[in-house]
Known about the structure:
Layout: E1 21-27, H1 30-47, E2 51-54, H2 57-66, E3 74-75, H3 78-81, H4 85-101, E4 107-111, H5 122-135, E5 141-148, H6 154-163, E6 166-169, E7 172-174, H7 181-186, E8 203-206, H8 210-221, H9 227-247, E9 253-258, E10 262-269, H10 291-300, E11 303-309, E12 312-320
Parallel strand pairs: 1-5, 1-6, 2-3, 2-4, 4-5
Antiparallel strand pairs: 6-7, 8-9, 9-10, 10-12, 11-12
Helix pairs in contact: 1-2, 4-5, 5-6, 8-9, 9-10
GO molecular function: protein serine/threonine kinase activity
InterPro entries: Anti-sigma-factor_SerPK, HATPase_C_sf, HATPase_dom, MEDS_domain, RsbA-like_anti_sig
Keywords: Kinase, Serine/threonine-protein kinase, Transferase
Amino acid sequence: MLAGGTPRVTALPGAGRAHSEHQAFCHSSDEEFLALAVPFLQAAVKSGEPALVSLEPRRAELVYEAVADPAGLTFVAAGDLYARPASVLKAYRKRMADYVAAGASDIRIVGELPPVAFGYSWDWWARYESAVNHAYAEFPVRTLCAYDTRVAPPHVLDDVRRTHPLVTGPDGVSTADYIEPRAFLTAPWPVPPHPVQLRPPQLDLADPEPAAARRAVTEANRAALSPDALDDLVLSVSEVVTNAHRHGRGPVRLRLWSDDSHAVVTVHDTGPGPADPFAGLLPAADRTTGGLGLWLAHQLCEHVAMVRDDHGFTVRLTAGRLPR
């Protein structure tokens, strides 16, 4: 803490401009937020280095008014950017690669997840936060992730501490709870059921081939989903079923639930799941391992959960409106 109780950004031990830094800031007021974010961004403006800001509109406006020269910042609407974790990682990596190609040596990002991320889909956003430590490691980027403790529930803040090497808050800086990405991403993860899963499934198929899975999912969801959402779900199911047959361990089981506004499909096999802990969030370096299909599903579905347990590996695909 700085004198007067103002939180500060702390460099990671041993990190410099050639490496990434991933820090969370847990704040409980606009004043606390601005006390950290403004100097962090102002330093980038002063040095002429790139600085990205992706915040909820009200907080973005506060930053715009507080920074001396906001023209030096790039504002990206948080609602547009933070739709799906794999898409965010892809977009940021593309921007950072472009900045580095143009000569940048100290990229700065201030971002926050929309509150909707703290509900049903939090598991894949927690996976995203963990994967950032690996996905951005090659870039000279300092990322400051803001979490409003008035909005983020306790279980979210617990995962924030596990997925950020440094966490700054009113009580100082903590590193004690951080878990390395490979350990965090391969640990068993409790995923609450979607409300439609509380009743028997409409489809329960044993060892379906991809073509049969596509036909069954299409017929079962014509009335529930828009044509585009249905196409995305069908392609995702096809990819995941193919992966289960090719890389998992039989038997493969597909189950589907739907109502008038969304659909949930689970694909289960008795294998351990992908060896790559970043499967789905990042494109597979080795496409023979099946990571491409999961990566596509992560960009097409409204939510993808991956569950490892004593019974095997399950991928749950959700299309349509998400529950809160």
